[in-house]
Amino acid sequence: MSVTTPRGFRAAGVAAGLKSGGVADLALVVNDGPDAGVAGVFTANRVKAAPVRWTQQVVRGGVVRAVVLNSGGANACTGPAGFQDTHATAEHTAAALTSASPRLRLGAGEVAVCSTGLIGERLPMDKLLPGVRAAIRGLARDGGPAAAEAIMTTDTRPKTTVVRGSGWTVGGMAKGAGMLAPGLATMLCVLTTDAVAGPELLDAALRAGTRVTFDRVDSDGCMSTNDTVLLLASGASGVEPTEAELTAAVTAACHDLAQQLVADAEGATKQIAVDVVGAASEDDAVEVGRSVARNNLVKTALFGNDPNWGRILAAVGTTAAAFEPDRVDVAVNGIWVCRCGAAAEDRAKVDLTGRDVTIRIDLHAGDAAATIWTNDLSHAYVHENSAYSS
């Protein structure tokens, strides 16, 4: 189960010295073809890291043969010099790969670059570029798990997935445990497929998939400067799925990875699904779900095993969604603690001792629904993020 499960891909993960302790911190994914189609979605944050701005340009070209990813530094807010570092990384990777595999013959414009880590500091290029060469030497068909480990920051475990179609496969890896809030995509993710699919089909499938998965993960309400999700197609299976088939597989892969992200969110002790039903529109359902998911009073109450439905209802009331306050119902783990905007079943019946929590909100305003996934806010989250850069 990895990014190299689909045919036509190799990967590696190495320790380049970007992080202390000799842990893996640089990954490389290579598409050996015969095709090299790509699609991507990126952070909507106006403050975009250099690798995001570079890779957006690369994806517009419709061809990507390699993706270089590093942890240990975001290369965000580093000015023109930081962008030049990204450009140099792509150039170096292209030249080194071409030298190692002449049949690839790729240029810098076919190399995507992704970075993650502390914002505001340039990357040590004297370590990163040799790390790229080491990764090229280590490329292997079974290198996906090592690549997934190399992109971790505060993650406690690597995140990989595989979804199988009829004669073709989608694989993937992702990282992210904090700064998980939507804006087209969240965290770093590379998806691969050996299906025959061009950039337009890949783009349609990826946007449809991320819209209902990554875009609905809202761990801490903080949007990153580096969020990138890429979908690469090698065409090595020789099978051309329909748009519906590819979209379903990509969506399933994204959903699996999204759930792994929430499960491993920084300091989380609860994995929370906010189900909003009876909304006048899907947008209303998403807005209500996100308001509850981002509410610190709700998140801290759940950390303390307190089914405080009043906080939930108050969060719903801050939205512009269409509803009548005296018609809203709220259930926590199946117990309808609020009916028609007032107390209902005894809140003491709610069992919050487990990790999984479901909040169901019925607006009684229509037929639309949506789910937002989040987690609680714990002492560990505060501690980890108060000491992140020190």
How would you describe this structure to a colleague?
The model has no long low-confidence stretch (mean pLDDT 94). The two termini are 35 Å apart. It contains ten helices and 15 strands. The protein is 32% helix and 23% strand. The protein is of the alpha+beta class. Helix 1 (50-60) packs across helix 2 (79-100), helix 2 (79-100) packs parallel to helix 3 (125-138) and helix 7 packs across helix 9. The strands form three sheets. A six-stranded mixed beta sheet has the order 13-12-11-14-10-15. It has helices at 50-60, 79-100, 125-138, 144-150, 199-211, 243-263, 282-293, 296-303, 309-316, 379-386, and strands at 9-14, 26-31, 37-42, 66-70, 111-115, 159-164, 169-175, 188-193, 228-233, 271-279, 329-332, 335-339, 342-343, 356-362, 368-375. The chain is globular and about 70 Å long. Strand 12 and strand 13 form a beta hairpin.
Ends distance: 35 Å
Overall mean pLDDT stands at 94
Content of β-strand: 15-25%
Which sequence of SSEs, written as H and E, runs from N to C?
EEEHEHEHHEEEHEHEHHHEEEEEH
Largest sheet entry: 6 strands, mixed
Tell me the overall shape. globular
Strand order of the largest sheet: 13-12-11-14-10-15
Instruction: State the oligomer.
Output: single chain
What is Rg?
A: 22 Å
Total helical segments: 10
Low-pLDDT stretches: none
Helix content: 25-40%
What is the strand tally?
15
Q: Output the structural class.
A: alpha+beta
